[in-house]
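protien #1 (seq + structre)
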Amino acid sequence: MNEEIDNEAGRRPTGAAAQAPAESSARARAAPRPGGHPPSPGARPPLPSASALPSLRQLSYLVAVAERLNFTQAAQDCFVTQSTLSSGLKELERTLGAALVERDRQHVLVTPLGRAVVQRSRELLGSARDLVGMVRAAAAPMTGLVRLGAIPTIAPFMLPQLVREARARHPDLKLALREDQTATLLERLRAAELDFALIALPYDTTGLLVRELFAEELWLITRMPERASPPRRLTISGLDTDRLLLLEEGHCLREHTLEACGLAERANPSGIEATSLVTLVQMVESGLGDALLPQMAIDSGFLGRASVLPQRFAPPAPKRTIALVARQTTTRMAEFEFLAGLAS
């Protein structure tokens, strides 16, 4: 990014014609300003040069430092020495004419302006990756690596079959999978560290390409009663919300459960929250409370021999919508449509 093309190279004067203007220019630069002092040889210009641009490598160094807040770890992430990373970051600051990172021997802090530059850097790096992906996809569609993310309440139930079918139809298409919470997946998606993500709606997907795949119901699981009782009509309004167990914050199933029950954001009265679906089921089995699970978990046999009773709600049942999301600028539309079709 920081190389320039000199379109005037072929028309420069030579010899004495070039020497006189050069000497005159040098004297002008060296001459003191009226009432002032000659510029310091090492002084940094107050504003960046309009012709100087940062490199992608420098921007990647800044992003790594912002994520790690540790120069040693950031250098390891970038596969360079710490001195190389530090020099590149200083050169970036000189190019932009502003301090982006404050550091001493113990602390690293990204300045407010630095945080804004980090955000733009992620976008630029993502666009550069998309550029490379566009060329490769045009040369050989449905081949190469596709990075697919999925949330924990989807990944174990949809990804195994999805990967098998994708491999069977397009053996040269390789899927690299990542399981994480929705906010992290979308952050990585926007930074072009992921190509697509399987998430559950409703969720804020502003600025992204969203393909809704299907809606599924949420079921109630309770501890298995000691004695069989006659079936009853289960409604969401009839739930004892004081017994409702939730996943910890960050899991979208938590928000979907609260929304389905018409509850404001809250923690469990007991202060106990599950970190995963497995833990949530174990908590219900222990009699700590009840919980909502997605239907794909019920249908997959996820409950196994757990002593819990899955129950379906009477209409209108609470639901969530499964969606595949990508960047609006994705260059892998063929793969996006293919995976959306498989997952629908």
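ok now protien #2
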Amino acid sequence: MSETTYMMACPRAGAEPKVPMNFQSLNSSVSMQQQTILIVEDDPQLRVLLGRRLQEHGFKTVPAQSAPEAWRVLDEVPVDLVLLDVMLPGTSGLDICRTIRRDSTVPIIMLSARTEETDRVLGLELGADDYVPKPFSTKELIARVRAVLRRREPDWLQPSNLQGLLRFAGWSLDLRKHELTSPKGARVELSGAEYGLLVVLLDNPQRVIGRERLLELSRTRLGDASDRSIDVLVSRLRRKFAQDEGGTALIRTMRGTGYMFAAAVERL
């Protein structure tokens, strides 16, 4: 089989998990250890191909062809990243993504033969860290997998300037734990892509940054720089900042240019 594939789907019923899913701790996986990737794909040839290629690059893979199988794996196996086909039989990949995001920030990369911008935006809105259209090169996919996993490396593997605590407008971001805390002390969950973008904004406070530069700096390779990936991530961050009065004004849109983080940032 070649290293590309095309869409497939044949509806079939699926059930959501009945017990908490077993995800890896954000700090439990390190580059020198074998990381586990769950491949949720109903095309058997593509599923085998992806598993083989990922294993050749040092990853451990666990296959699933439907939602019930995915729930079983997630309940039993610690997973570092999920490759999730959108057009699954029964419960769709989008519904699986939505359910996972209720319980975890485990990285999710969506795979789909549907290339319309609205589909990519919906996947990102639901919390996916990346969205890869089919057909794709397995080399590119593996590069994207590594990019997403790099954002989840523990603090002792991160550059020294990405360690510590950042404070702004009553909020705080712990760079060691990847934890965002509101002015009221509530912990706010962040996906890998959201965290990556927020770190870039906080590293460049009160400075206008263009979308292409944001894509480059945050390593959120979510399609072409002309698509709405950065806009979607900014929207998601604004909704989370909206927990506090005035929080939505922290990230300003600079018309025709990009975005600016408006508050002063203190590094501790």
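The helical segments are 44-56, 67-76, 93-103, 117-125, 138-150, 192-203, 211-218, 229-241.
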